[in-house]
Amino acid sequence: MDVTITAGPAFAMGTITVPPGGSVRVEAGAMAMTRGDVSMETSTRGGFMSGLKRSLGGESFFVNDFHSGSGGQVGVAATLPGDMAEVTLDGTGALLVQSGSWIASDPSIQVDSKWGGGKSFFSGEGLILLRCTGAGELLLASYGAIQGFTLAAGETLTLDTGHVVAFDDSVQFSVRKAGSWKSTILGGEGLVTDFTGPGRVWLQTRSSNDLIDWIKRVNPQRNN
Which of 88, 98, 179, 223 could cross-link with 183 by S-S, CB 3.0 to 4.6 Å? Predict the structure, then answer.
């Protein structure tokens, strides 16, 4: 996948060059523009159950495959303002992606879901993480700028749960309180996630959960 990322890190847009005879898979609703010889095919890709599992992971039930006979471009943009990052998978492992951060990939990448159990539930990311496997490129979107880290074996990185974007499945993770119950309640810090290498981890510099909480404070809803 040949991607040019512009207007980042605040309002990133990914322009994907599709070669003659090539294609790219895009999250439903993420297409901002097409240029040249480009056609679109909408499907569940993998059948009803695959579409259902993606939807449980926060993505659309459907995906769009953009094809080109003689070459063209597809521009993609995320819902929230922020950054994008291109990630390479070599086919030997999986990438676990938070709900809403997968935006496009090579057709060779399988986008499925993984049951997160209690750890994902308590991290505030829901019970499902998207699981991306295969060999190829994929495009991640974030709220705010996106930063990547490569952890050595045994090295630990701690993130606020609302700032997690993606991580390799070789990375172990556990969720805990940021401090004591007193500091958690009064200090404004909730749960954090400890990631232990080896592997890659990506974070976003803003939290959509914090944005929602701020909107609720400045525009409280009143029941009649």
Answer: 179
Tokens of 196: 């232990």
Reading the block at residue 52, the tokens are 């259902």
Structure tokens at 160: 């606020």
Q: HSE-up of 15 (CA within 13 Å, CB side)?
A: 11
The amino acid sitting at 43 is S
Q: Tens of pLDDT along 110-153?
A: 988 765 544 554 445 445 688 899 999 999 999 999 999 999 99
Domain of 36? Answer: 2-218
Report the number of distinct structural domains present in the chain. 1
Do residues 146 and 198 touch, judged by C-beta distance below 8 A? no
Structure-block tokens of residue 81: 């303002």
